[in-house]
Fold this sequence. Notes:
InterPro entries: ACT-like_dom_sf, ACT_dom, D-isomer_2_OHA_DH_cat_dom, D-isomer_DH_CS, D-isomer_DH_CS1, D-isomer_DH_NAD-bd, NAD(P)-bd_dom_sf. This protein has 388 residues and is α/β, with parallel strands linked by helices. It is built from 14 helices and 16 strands. The chain has three domains: 1-83 and 279-304, NAD(P)-binding Rossmann-like Domain (Rossmann fold), CATH 3.40.50.720; 84-269, 3-Layer(aba) Sandwich (Rossmann fold); 308-388, ACT domain (Alpha-Beta Plaits, 2-Layer Sandwich). It has helices spanning 12-15, 66-72, 84-99, 102-114, 123-126, 147-158, 172-177, 188-192, 214-219, 237-246, 259-262, 278-298, 330-340, 369-377, and strands spanning 2-6, 23-26, 34-37, 53-56, 75-77, 139-143, 162-166, 183-185, 197-200, 224-228, 249-254, 267-269, 318-325, 345-353, 356-363, 381-387.
Amino acid sequence: MYRIRTFNKISPVGLNRLDPALYAVSDSETDEDAILVRSAKLLDYDFPKNLLAISRAGAGVNNIPLDRCSEAGIVVFNTPGANANAVKELVLCAMLMGSRDVDGGIQWVRQQVASGVDVTTVVEKGKAAFIGPELYKKTLGVIGLGAIGSLVANIALSLGMDVYGYDPFLSVDAALRLDRHIHVVKDINELYKRADYITIHIHYTKDTERMIDAKAIGAMKRGVRFINLARGEIVDDDAMLAALDTGWVAAYVTDFPNNRLVGAPHVLAMPHLGASTPESEQNCAVMAVDQLRDYLENGNIRNSVNLPAVSQERSGVCRLCLIHKNVPAMLASITTLLSRDGINVENLSNKSRGDYAYTIVDLSAPADQCVIDEVTALENVIRVRVIQ
Ligand SMILES: NC(=O)c1ccc[n+]([C@@H]2O[C@H](COP(=O)([O-])OP(=O)(O)OC[C@H]3O[C@@H](n4cnc5c(N)ncnc54)[C@H](O)[C@@H]3O)[C@@H](O)[C@H]2O)c1
Ligand SMILES: O=C(O)[C@H](O)COP(=O)(O)O
């Protein structure tokens, strides 16, 4: 029986894929073998020794201490693309709301009614205060052309926008998803100097923290409208507030409110709603659960953010799964111990990612505990699992 602790509400459509005969799942499990999480912060969480995996039902993993997980042999998964459509649709909403003062207008209508005015008598005169430009024929800059950015870039074309994209690490898959009419630039300043609207879709890491600072904003066009449904930390709030104050930035629409931003003019702050649709919550939960099950039951790794992707059809009678450091002669050391005991290797897969590597070995005979202990004791081996 595996114990899975949930740290957020995970869609039952995903959770129902966990057989209750094999899995105990709740938010009160202790000594858990695995974690299912959305945005709950695990940075200071004291992981149980037997924790094997964390599956993030969503894209961003800045709430998970990846280095600490790798060192402890904990595999971290996310669900690439599973919530991208939900975010794309909210970006469209954000672009429109940052343009036309729909929010201000709706609030004004409510205020009229609340103060006893017959709103029908003031609408036509009052509406002039809420005028705003159209998206059609304007230029959109998309920073980050991954799962979300590529969808946003493509749909903006169909709104009649001219689209510039920037992504120095563009994957082949992502590039193939992009409409050929999108101008992909190598220098972000090419995007900054042209865009009337900029939307950012990159991960928050040490490298992207406050990437949108005073210098970046200064390189943008005066009157730019900036949309941030990625992470609050990517934008330097001081620089953004100063630019809103002078009108250099006409509107800042963000999914990451804080008290300073919410009080400022021309800021529209939503409560992290990007992925909050039933469809996206289900997609993410299904993917997070399926990947987790495949790892727990078969040792296969798909869509990990800290270990390589390694999957292998089951063969033999017993499977060894090893997380180890990416150093020379690991495979030789492991197979030497196995062959010394007369155990034949039916199939083997090994891949590395940065400082770490993962090996799956299917064996023709069950490995006895002595040999497992010896493999576990090898220098640079972090974790060994035996799956029957
Ligand atoms: N508001 C929400 O609810 C919500 C929902 C989903 C994702 N997100 C955020 O959006 C981020 C992106 O999600 P995704 O699914 O598109 O991820 P993704 O991995 O598919 O795409 C990220 C892209 O950013 C690119 N990139 C990395 N560094 C860059 C840089 N310095 N400049 C330009 N591009 C860079 C990568 O090459 C990649 O193509 C997530 O990490 C998360 O923080 C927010
Ligand atoms: O990174 C993500 O996937 C989003 O920020 C969504 O987060 P959530 O699952 O907590 O809504």
